[in-house]
Every structure is written in C-alpha cells, then in structure tokens.
Amino acid sequence: MPKTRGEGEEREITGRKQHMQEECLEFCLTAQAAIRCAANSVKHSDPNPDPGVNAAEKESQEKEKVLNSLMSGALAGAVAKTAVAPLDRTKIMFQVSSKRFSAKEAYRLIYHTYLNEGFWSLWRGNSATMVRVIPYAAIQFCAHEEYKQILGNYYGFQGKALTPFPRFIAGSLAGTTAAMVTYPLDMVRARMAVTPKEMYSSIVHVFIRISREEGLKTLYRGFTPTILGVIPYAGLSFFTYETLKKVHAEHSGKAQPSPPERLLFGACAGLIGQSASYPLDVVRRRMQTAGVLGHSYSSILLTMQDIVREEGLVRGLYKGLSMNWVKGPIAVGISFTTFDLTQILLRKLQRGPGLQR
C-alpha cells in the first residue's frame, strides 16, 4: 500500500506540473498577443509617423515650442503695454475717481501731469506693468497654444482650426491661467498708477507697505471681478482674432495675413473683448485702490451699487471706455501681431525658412 500510495502521489505531482506548464504557456501566448496589439496601437496612433524623430527629439521639439511661445508672448506684452502706457495710466486715474470723463478732461490730465511731474511721469507705474505684463503675456500666449492643442486633440481637430466654441474656451482658459498667476503684480501696478511717487518708492516697497498696513489678503482684493472679466475678454479677443485669420485665409487664398492685416484683426479683437468686460474692469480698479483712496468696497455687487448710485450707470461703469476704444485696439493689435511675427521669426531662425504659424 505504501508503494501504491507513492506512485499515486507521483502521478498527481506530475499531472500538476503538466497543468502548470500548460497554464504558463497559455499565459505567455496571451501576453505576447497583448504586447503585439499594444505595439500596433502605438504604431498607428500617430497619423503622421516620422521614423526619424525619436522620443527625445519630440520632447526637445515640444520644449522648443513652449519656449518660443513664452518668449514671443513676453515681447508682445512688453511692446504693446509700453506703447499705450500714458493712455492706460490716464484711464486708471479716471476709473478710480468720481470725476466725469471726457476726451477734453483726459487731455487736460495728461498735460497737467506732464507739466507738474515731467514727461516720463506719464509712464509712472510702467515698471510695475512690465513686471506683471511680461509674465502675464508669456503665460497667456503659451497657455493658449497649449489649450488649442489639447482641445484640438479632444475634439479631433489636430493641425486644423478649432470650431468657434473650443476657440472661445481656449482663449478664456489662457487668460484665466495668466491672471491667477500674476494678479498681485496687477494690484501693485494699479496702486503705483494712482499714487504720488513719494508714497511708494518701488515695486518692492508697495508689497511691503500693503502687507504690513493692510494685510496680505489685500494683494488679492478685486480678484473675483478680474477673473469674471478675463473670461469674456480673453475668450472674445482670441476668438475674434483667430476667426478673422481663418476667414481671411478662406477668402483670400493666402495662408498668412500681412502685418497690417494682423494689426487690424487684433484691433477688432481688442475692441470687442474690452467692450464686453469693461464694467468689471472699473469694479476691479476701484477695489484694488480702495485702501489708498479712502473707500471701502467689500464685494462686486456693493461696489457696482456705489458706483451707479454716485455716478450713474453709463458714466460710472463705462467711464473711460471711449479712451479704451483708442488704447485697447492699439495694444491688442500690437500684441497679437508681435506674437505672431516673433513666432515666425524664431521658427525660421531655428528650422530654416518656409515654416510659418
């Protein structure tokens, strides 16, 4: 019996081994088939496979693209804002006061500032503007390019112009991203624009005094109306500019508009975007400068109510809009044109002529 039991156990062990071998073989065959399937999927996932471009090169190209967008956006923002800085400062001074706006009064204010404080005082606060606008514009334009690519992949428009709604969303997301990152600098710039130079000696001094006297939360006062204003402003601006370029290409047969046409398209984009979001811009400025002008604004609605009660709906919430119709289109037109042309130049320098945006 012990011998018979031993033979039975041996046969059972042998059977188990054979069963395990069969299972292992089946598993290997299944894994091999899965690997082949995955390889084929990866191989066919790229609609334009380039055997000469490996993963490292693709990563390098992506970094190069992001860097180009950041550099082009930074230059675009700096050039545009510097060009309209005197008008921008004048607009802010009217926005934060109860004075009635008119072209004549705006001219008087500019001339009075020039006589009393000198020519370069018209650019007071522009250093703070540059500190804010260079990263803001760099992030906004770069984010817009990335959001366009993400939305294009999501909706299946790789390499093609987005449809209207994704086009608007890409612009809104880009503006919101940039505003969230750089808002404290916008606050500082507004303070420097409406105060005498004796009050704040530098950008750092503004940060120190605000944090010491009013608290760090003050650096984000007016943040909500800023975001609510940026969504339609950035969305409509990018949407209008991209749409006009697309329509131009379809009707003219030219792949790219000329620089004057880009300026015109950008001006239209700025006019539409800023007109749609202007009341929130007034509210934002009032909340940002409340601490130095003796006002107390606790919310968007209360700020709007105070402005309308004291100055009227149109004269209050749309104060300075006519100046913005001059300043805004110029700034946005210069900004979009500078970005596009810088992108084209950088790509030509890096990869040779013939590659355009």
> Uncertain spans, ≥5 residues at pLDDT below 50?
1-5, 27-49, 353-357
Strand content: under 5%
Radius of gyration: 30 Å
Number of domains: 1
Cα(first) to Cα(last) distance is 88 Å
Helix percentage range: over 70%
From the 3D structure, determine the CATH topology. Mitochondrial carrier fold
Summing up helix and strand content along with how strands pair, one would put the structural category as mainly alpha
CATH architecture assignment name: Alpha/alpha barrel
Mean pLDDT: 79
CATH class: Mainly Alpha
Query: Count of DSSP helices?
Result: 12
The main sheet comes to: none
GO molecular function: ADP phosphatase activity; ADP transmembrane transporter activity; AMP transmembrane transporter activity; ATP transmembrane transporter activity; coenzyme A transmembrane transporter activity
InterPro entries: GDC-like (IPR002167), MCP (IPR002067), MCP_dom_sf (IPR023395), MCP_transmembrane (IPR018108)
Region (Disordered): 42-61
Keywords: Membrane, Mitochondrion, Mitochondrion inner membrane, Repeat, Transmembrane, Transmembrane helix, Transport
